[in-house]
């Protein structure tokens, strides 16, 4: 296994992985807290770091059909959620 390089955020408030405390996003990168996921409330972030993407796949979400990819923590490989890759409906493309 190679050496693990993680980036750190210099900010007053930082969102981290709950399992390994790897920095993921500065608090000012929260775009919205008004989302629902499969397991409850979900947040939409702008830029995140220290994550890797799974393969893109089509999923039917509450807001329609989207192409999404699961994201995983680079520190511990925990599935953190997913990111939007493509939205088919014009009003959903901001995601």
From TrEMBL:
GO terms for molecular function: metal ion binding. The keyword Amino-acid biosynthesis does not apply. Signal peptide: none annotated. Pfam families: Yippee-Mis18. Residues 13-95 form the Yippee domain. Keywords: Metal-binding, Zinc. This is Protein yippee-like. Belongs to the yippee family.
